[in-house]
Amino acid sequence: MENTVEKIKSSILSGQSIIQIISFEEKRVEGYLSKLSQQITGNDALALWDTNNGLVINGEKIEGTTDPVAAMDHVIKDSTPRFYVFRDMTHLLKTSQNSIRKLRESYITLKGTKRVIFLLSPEEYFSENLKKEIDIFRFELPDYAELESLFNRFINSLEKSGKTIDLSDEEKRNFVIAVQGLTFDEAYKAFMKSFQNTNTINVSLLEKIHEEKKQLILKEGVLEYYSQRFVLEDMGGLDNLKDWLMKREKAFSKEAKDYGLERPRGFLAMGVSGCGKSLAAKITASLWNLPLFRLDMNLVYSGMAGSPEMVFSRALKTMDTVAPAILWIDEIESGISDKQGDSASSRILGYFLTWMQEHTSEIFITATANRIDLLPAELLRRGRFDQIFFMDLPTRKEREEIFTIHLKSRGNDTGNFNIPQLAQITKGWSGSEIEQVIISGMYEAFNENRPMSEDDLFVIFGSSVPLSLTMEEQIKKIRSWAHNRAVRASSDKEVY
Q: What is this structure's pTM?
């Protein structure tokens, strides 16, 4: 934040008299400008203009200045060094040539006088006729220090009111990280909603913060917020992937940054359908205590919300504002490719590659792919993703884990099942296929009003054909591609 304020200060001291600031946070920006005005002009009182009140100086409305041209005429005549903040002028810059002409006159008259007109608006727009006169600055969202100060004020206030604060230092940091990407006012409201109507402040309230970020995403029709939480124990096998995730659990913490670590960019999970790729994205969000958002590429290309390129660009910009967060792009090959003759697809690919390389927001991408051979080579090169994991069909040991997980999660007594035998019988079955067998067996038992038994599973095994047989050639092709190109998500190298 200090960097932007210093740039604005440097612009003013070099003689600049018209500055556009892009931000939703009027009060916060005006607070910084007030302090800057004190440094430069010796006066911390800003003159404010909007279409409702006209020009207001020292609390006094100047008659006849609701028209911006009249307001700027007053500014030109006022010889006092002062900062003038014109709010929401964007629509006038699009439609009023008189306003544009008067701004150009003001630029010449006020240049070097320490009388500065600030055009403050959340909309990123300026007239081509003013591009030589205006300096433009995007006001960053609150940084960690600002949000930490806000959080500490909340905690101190709650302690004084008699509430119990059951938070470790690490959990307190997680609350501050959770509101990064929100405006100061949004962060305030998020803390207020999370902490009210409860006598004990603990880490379980963190989910309410993530719900506030969901509100931002709801405005963007192609993004979906996932509230369901999973843990590592919900995923059978894949120990290499689990170890990789655990080592990066604190990757977005202040300590990691102070240590000199760069933020992780993301991973691409490719492999056989039904072997845990989507579950890996969900578990990453839970393990790292970050909100998870899924980008639906089918909706991007549907045209319902506008041109695919515009919708995709807007979605990524929205993700930048809710950082830190996990962006899950499922079956990425269906939406981001270098299809010949598809100009929208190639433009989206170009934009995505640039964003992956250049964006500075704390967004971690979890992408999944079934047909990685359809992805362009430039998307797979080092630097785009931190790692590419290959998820093969589960080994015998992993199938045992998968049976145990799904039987337990549905209230079955695992002691009534010969799990090693079940794992041996299901060689070549994916994790999702095993889950569906258990669900089908439970329906059979439920229909007869009795507990499920092994016999129910054996009946279904006998009438089912696993994907490894129906798509044998495609699976061989995937394995061939992954050999020496991707890291196995599992360290177990069972031969199929």
A: 0.67
